Structures are given as structure tokens and as C-alpha cells.
Amino acid sequence: QSALTQPASVSGSPGQSITISCTGTSSDVGGYNYVSWYQQHPGKAPKLMIYEVSNRPSGVSNRFSGSKSGNTASLTISGLQAEDEADYYCSSYTSSVSWVFGGGTKLTVL
Amino acid sequence: QVQLQESGPGLVKPSQTLSLTCTVSGGSISSGGYYWSWIRQHPGKGLEWIGYIYYSGSTYYNPSLKSRVTISVDTSKNQFSLKLSSVTAADTAVYYCARVSGGPPNADYWGQGTLVTVSS
Fold first, then answer.
1. Candidate from A34, A89, A97 with C-beta closest to B104
2. Which residues of chain B does A91 touch, with a Cβ-Cβ cutoff of 8 Å?
3. Rounded CA gap, A106 and A85, in Å?
């Protein structure tokens, strides 16, 4: 069982917006602004999309945004495109383990 | 552009030790500011952090694996390594090495990953 809880799947049509949630506890997501999001296409390594809750690395589209409220972080993808279809993982610093990941969410673009 | 490349046996027998090396190019491990990490992904499953090391040799391990894991660094070769002892079929996974920021854990560069199968 993963330390952070994500929905197994989400879907949306091109052009729409979707949000993926990531729920933890006050010892990880809620306790630190150290949530990151990764995108992983099949057979590829994960790619950092969001760090420290809401910051985008250079080169990442501004269609990707992150936020946090209490023990739940969220990744929002606006203007959904076919290339966004992938698995998405959240991660957080945690006082007990140091670094934990969510179970992953499969995004399907309809 | 930093690049990481995993290398090592793709098949390990049960009860033996899994050994992988990550070679870093385009940047020096000794420059500091980053941790160098191993992360694995069981087939069809999510990501699991194994541990990371600083160039000085300081290590941090996932408590669930700590008793079996050793991560070391060779700054002269710009490499870091993973040893996982007493492996079982449950250790079959794709193993990634990654560069992690020195503050909050953000992995900004990843290797391509290498599949290690534990089987007799």
C-alpha cells in the first residue's frame, strides 16, 4: 500500500481540464510544501512536472499546475492534449521515511 | 545536460545480492548540492524510493529496505552504486537512478531504467 493515495484513473477529452488528487497526512503532504508530480509514459523514465507544490521546471508547459490544501495536493492539466496521456505520480517529503510516492494515476485522453 | 545510465546484471538468483551502478555524465557528483538516488518500479506498479547518497558518503534509506540496502559513491569515476542483499522474486523491478535536489526531494534527471529479474 502506497503512502500517498491517488485515484487509479482519470479521463478527459481534448481541450478539457482534469485534476488528479494526492492525499497524505500531516506528516507528509500536509506538513511540508515539498510535493512533486511526475509524468511517466509507457516504457519511459518519469519526468518531473511540478516541484514544491506549484513550481514548474523549465520547459514544462504552463498547462500543468499544482496546488495543495491541507493533506491533499492536486495536479491540474488544462487544455488536455493527446500527448498528456500517461501515468502521473505524486511524491512528498515525509518526516518518517524521507520520501514517498503515490500509487499513480493513469490519465486517459478520450 | 546531465545524463545517468544504469548498468548491471539483468538476472539475479534468489538469496543473492543485486548490484547496479549508475554512471553520471554532464555533471560532477562531487560538485555537491544534489543527492543521488535509487528508485524502483515493480512491473505495472508505482514508484518506490530505495535510498540516496550525497557525494560525501552520507546515506538515507527507505526504512522498509534499510536492512538489505547499501548505496555507495565513487567520485573518481563519477558513479554511485546500489547493493540489495538476499533478494527474492518481490525484488523484480525496473531500477532507476536519479539526481535529487539537495533540499526537498525532487528528481530532475533520471536514468532510462534497467529491469532486474530475480529468478533461479
1. A34
2. 47, 49, 105
3. 8
- Cross-strand bridge partners of residue B96: B39
Chain A nearest-CA residue for B104: A34
pLDDT at residue B104, rounded to an integer? 81
Query: Could you give the CA distance from residue A35 to residue A84 in angstroms, rounded to a whole number?
Result: 20
Residues with Cβ within 8 Å of B108's Cβ and at least 6 positions away in sequence, in order, are A48, A51, A57, B98, B99, B100, B101
Separation between Cα atoms, residue A4 and residue A73, nearest integer Å: 10
Contacts of A98 in chain B (CB under 8 A): 49, 60, 62, 105
What is chain A's Cα-based Rg? Answer: 13
Tell me the three cell numbers of residue B57. 558518503
CA B77, CA A14: separation in Å to the nearest integer?
Answer: 47
**What pLDDT, on the 0 to 100 scale, is given for residue B32?**
84
CA distance to B11, B87, B88, B120, per residue, from B16 (Å): 11, 6, 8, 10
Give A81→chain B minimum CA distance, Å.
23
Q: How far is CA B25 from CA B33, B37, B107, B110, B113, in A?
A: 16, 15, 16, 12, 16
Task: Report whether pLDDT(A1) > 90.
Answer: no
Burial B64-90 (b: 16+ CB within 10 A, else e): ebeebbbbebeeeebbbbbebeebeee
* pLDDT tens, position by position, B6-44: 999 999 999 999 999 999 999 999 988 899 999 999 999
